[in-house]
Amino acid sequence: MIRGFLLFGILLGLVAPAAAQSPLEPWLVQSACLDAAGRVVPGRLPIDTACRRRVPQQQYDPMPYRRHDWPAVEHASGLPQGYQASDAVLGTLMGRPAAIHTFDFGAGEGRRFGTFDRGRGDGGQVVPLAPGPAFIAMTEDGGGGVQWFLSPECRQGGLGWQGWLVAAPQPGQGWSERVVRLRIAPTAAACPTRFDESLTRWRRTAVDLPWREAATGRQGSARFDAIVSEHFGGGAIATADHLERFVLARDLGMVRWERWENTARSRRANLARDAAAFARQQRCPPLAVSEAPAEGWLMMDCRTWTNFVRATPGRPLAALAWPPPELR
């Protein structure tokens, strides 16, 4: 296993340029830290002061750390690694370079970290890497299986992967926004006949990001260059019924996901009760960017993947082997 880390350092110059096609890649993919000889350092994190040289993490190379979510306060002692790990790594989707964001559950229902537990929540989302804006093309979870976010471009013979917009290159400090049209499809070839509107907005900002050591429970905070991306369930904030917010930290990838409901438009019952119950769990430390988009919105769910599990010398970690082989 040590040899795996050493071989990775030797091959860096061969594999890294192949996927360096998107200006947004540094915010979509986590980094591994290198020593003076260009070798990956087991257990070293981008938040460590000793991490001065970095390289994007390839999906099938040994990993010096994995990012887990924060456990609820009542579960912290029994589930120090939280409920879900998420890797933000360089991989492929149908042979094209992509940022792979895995969702790897390891608590309850016989699930294990590092193993793809099909149908029990494991999966992820894929962002193909291209010179222009970043879009989520595909996702998988335990309920819906593999799903594709397709746009009207598929009606003109294109791939149609420009549905779920994340951000455009060179984001500014103020909000940039676009109304996109998309619909979920069961396969990449199942081009829909109708599409829904989604207001998407994004901005770049500095974020003080709380972190946690899974092994010890030690906590701290580090400032990161981040992109905040918001995807609304409608063409305007006032008419949308929900919001999904992503926080993408440079060198760590997607570190935060939030789900908000508009009390004036949502069809869910007991919103205030459920929002209060979730807040009591304290699974998502406060962030300055975590605020309601308008009056009457409540946060219903959230994950923060900054609960770090470090590899030790001779025992590197591995990213979840996802998407399915036929889609890589």
Fold blueprint:
Blueprint: H1 2-15, H2 25-28, E1 31-34, E2 53-56, E3 65-68, E4 84-85, E5 88-93, E6 96-105, E7 123-128, E8 134-136, E9 138-141, E10 145-150, E11 164-167, E12 176-185, E13 196-213, E14 219-232, E15 242-249, E16 253-262, H3 271-281, E17 297-304, E18 307-310
Parallel strand pairs: 13-18
Antiparallel strand pairs: 1-2, 3-18, 4-6, 5-6, 6-7, 7-9, 8-11, 9-10, 10-12, 12-13, 13-14, 14-15, 15-16, 16-17
What is the number of domains?
Answer: 1
> How far is the first residue's CA from the last residue's CA?
25 Å
According to DSSP, the number of beta strands is: 18
The low-confidence parts are 1-20
In short:
The protein is mainly beta and 328 residues long. It has 3 helices and 18 strands.
Can you tell me about this structure?
- This protein has 328 residues and is mostly beta strands.
- The protein has one domain.
- It is 9% helix and 38% strand.
- It contains three helices and 18 strands.
- Strands 3, 4, 5, 6, 7, 9, 10, 12, 13, 14, 15, 16, 17 and 18 form a 14-stranded mixed β-sheet that branches.
- The two termini are 25 Å apart.
Q: What labels would you give this structure?
A:
single chain, 328 residues, mainly beta, disordered N terminus
